[in-house]
């Protein structure tokens, strides 16, 4: 695999990348020099860090809007937007991190509201640290998904030729052992993992029985088969297409493209830095409006629309359940007639 320049990552049970074999890093002395110089330049460092935080916050709000189509989280969304509005007041990297942290706190409060009680999700922070210890199944899945994302970011940084230890938003310290630039780049892709984990639990792909609790370190861990199902879902999400500058790119390719743009910005070949494009397409077929429409549909109305009794029964069961579901295109077209013919409803 090394001869064929195929990256290899060894992940621990909790998603931690414990070893990697990457192709040789491109030798770009000017790029490395520009990176080190920018990390020492307060103004340029802030510009890059601001672009990263702005992109993460925008994505977080988009995820909340996506969740809001299914769940009542209006108050949590507005509180998060209130914290996000303070980004314009930040003048240092430290202040950027403070704003980002407060937005994240409110963001995870929305997740806490929508998740079922059996998950026992209390947020991404304990009294002293992040939930790397995975004291509940949802955090266990998040950690593993972030490990997958970390591998993607490492590959992108290696391919471009940047130094992974020199970041702009994150700095190495006693509590942060990851390479700083890897952690920086992860910020623009975390939404992919967040959405994937929600989808996994909503759909029933992951259930409580897919995890086991270890008494020696008080962590939740995946059963092996469930872990593979989850990895397949993550890969599917990363392989979705996104329209960017006239091209349809997979999200893993988008990450590499953004790292490439960062390199061009560092060397002066790009005048502006934008981590927000392309924007994701976050759609729901099973939003609250559709569920309400199905549950209020009478048998006579369904008959006029051409929806059989058994299909109506199945739709009602799905609408009452807590799980996500999809509709066939024909059924969606029939339900859409309710808007065209108000008398039916």
Number of helices: 13
Mean pLDDT: 85
Order of helices and strands: EEHHHHHHHEEHEEHHHHH
Largest sheet: 2 strands, antiparallel
Helix-strand makeup class: mainly alpha
Report the β-strand fraction as a percent range: 5-15%
User: What name goes with the CATH superfamily of the largest domain?
Assistant: CRISPR-associated endonuclease Cas1, C-terminal domain
- Provide the CATH topology of the largest domain: Four Helix Bundle (Hemerythrin (Met), subunit A)
> In one word, what is the shape?
globular
Q: Specify the CATH class of the largest domain.
A: Mainly Alpha
Poorly predicted sequence stretches spanning 5 or more consecutive residues:
341-345
Strand order of the largest sheet: 1-2
Distance between the termini: 61 Å
How many DSSP-defined strands? Answer: 6
Query: Which CATH architecture of the largest domain would you pick?
Result: Up-down Bundle
- How many domain modules? 2
Radius of gyration: 22 Å
Give a quick summary of the entry.
It is built from 13 helices and six strands. By secondary structure, the chain is mainly alpha-helical.
How would you describe this structure in keywords?
single chain; 345 residues; mainly alpha; Four Helix Bundle (Hemerythrin (Met), subunit A); 2 domains; two-stranded antiparallel ribbon; two-stranded antiparallel sheet; 6 strands; 54% helix
Structural summary, described in words:
This protein folds into 2 domains: 8-266, Up-down Bundle (Four Helix Bundle (Hemerythrin (Met), subunit A)), CATH 1.20.120.920; 288-344, no CATH class. The radius of gyration is 22 Å and the shape is globular. The longest helix has 27 residues, at 42-68. Residues 341-345 have low confidence and may be disordered. It is built from 13 helices and 6 strands. The chain has helices at residues 29-40, 42-68, 74-84, 93-114, 137-160, 180-186, 190-203, 224-238, 251-266, 288-295, 299-305, 309-320, 329-340, and strands spanning 8-11, 17-21, 211-214, 219-222, 241-244, 247-250. With 345 residues, it is mainly alpha-helical. Helices cover 54% and strands 7% of the residues. The relative contact order is 0.11. A hairpin with a 5-residue loop joins strand 1 and strand 2. It has a two-stranded antiparallel sheet. The protein has a two-stranded antiparallel ribbon with strand order 3-4. It has a two-stranded antiparallel sheet with strand order 5-6.
């Amino acid at each position: 695999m090394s001869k064929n320049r195929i990256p290899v990552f060894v992940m621990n049970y909790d998603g931690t990348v414990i070893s990697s074999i990457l192709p040789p890093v491109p030798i770009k002395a000017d790029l490395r020099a520009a990176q080190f110089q920018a990390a020492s330049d307060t103004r340029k460092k802030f510009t890059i860090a601001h672009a990263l935080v702005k992109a993460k916050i925008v994505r977080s709000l988009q995820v909340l809007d996506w969740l809001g189509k299914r769940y009542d989280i209006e108050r949590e969304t507005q509180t998060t937007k209130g914290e996000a509005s303070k980004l314009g007041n930040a003048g240092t990297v430290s202040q950027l991190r403070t704003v980002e942290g407060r937005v994240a706190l409110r963001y995870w409060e929305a997740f806490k509201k929508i998740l079922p009680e059996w998950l026992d999700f209390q947020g991404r922070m304990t009294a002293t640290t992040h939930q790397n210890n995975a004291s509940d199944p949802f955090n266990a899945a998040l950690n593993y998904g972030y490990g997958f994302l970390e591998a993607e970011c490492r590959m992108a940084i290696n391919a471009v030729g940047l130094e992974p230890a020199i970041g702009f938003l994150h700095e190495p310290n006693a509590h942060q052992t990851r390479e700083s630039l890897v952690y920086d780049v992860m910020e623009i892709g975390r939404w992919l993992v967040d959405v994937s984990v929600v989808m996994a639990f909503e759909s029933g792909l992951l259930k409580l029985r897919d995890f086991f609790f270890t008494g020696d370190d008080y962590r939740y861990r995946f059963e092996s088969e469930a872990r593979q199902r989850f990895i397949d879902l993550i890969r599917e999400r990363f392989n979705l297409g996104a329209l960017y500058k006239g091209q349809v790119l997979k999200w893993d390719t988008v990450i590499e493209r953004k790292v490439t743009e960062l390199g061009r910005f560092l060397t002066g070949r790009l005048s502006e830095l934008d981590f927000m494009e392309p924007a994701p397409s976050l759609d729901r077929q099973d939003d609250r409006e559709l569920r309400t429409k199905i549950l209020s549909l009478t048998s006579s109305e369904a008959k006029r629309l051409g929806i059989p009794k058994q299909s109506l029964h199945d739709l009602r069961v799905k609408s009452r359940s807590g799980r996500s579901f999809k509709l066939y295109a024909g059924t969606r077209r029939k339900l859409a007639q309710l808007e065209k013919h108000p008398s039916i409803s």
